[in-house]
């Protein structure tokens, strides 16, 4: 045993170490320390919740703008719609985005045909108020017109009353 501890094939070694063969020396070689590159990567995609949120389209504000029996001016929008859910009737135009608008001053009337819904505008003088419906106040656009008609009507009534009194 004594001879194995202090000697080796290549010569003497440290007395405390046993002799090591050439193959064992090759396997015991210490490789130099190579630091593994440590990079901390930040996320290049947002979290799952935040990427799916944050987009909202502006509302199109479709729908009926003037209802049946209400006064309307020429060029005023009656219905904004997607497609022709309601078709234009008399004195109503159809825009390229299917908007229905009035062609004359008058009152809006909704009708139902055998095949489709229609909206028409009739002149105020031809409009007959259906039973159970009361006259609604005119829109902002027609208030000056209606006020002028009312004043003229009142003046005419006053003249008739004066003539009747004489």
TrEMBL record:
InterPro entries named among the record's database cross-references: Ribosomal_bL27 (IPR001684)
Pfam families assigned to the protein according to its UniProt record, in alphabetical order: Ribosomal_L27 (PF01016)
GO biological process, one term: translation
Protein keywords: Ribonucleoprotein, Ribosomal protein
Gene Ontology molecular function, alphabetical: structural constituent of ribosome
Chain segments annotated as coiled-coil in the UniProt record: none
GO cellular component: ribonucleoprotein complex; ribosome
Keyword Ribonucleoprotein tagged: yes
Entries under SUPFAM superfamilies matching the protein: Ribosomal L27 protein-like (SSF110324)
Family label: Belongs to the bacterial ribosomal protein bL27 family.
PANTHER family: LARGE RIBOSOMAL SUBUNIT PROTEIN BL27M (PTHR15893:SF0), RIBOSOMAL PROTEIN L27 (PTHR15893)
Protein name per Swiss-Prot or TrEMBL: 50S ribosomal protein L27
Organism of this sequence: Auxenochlorella protothecoides
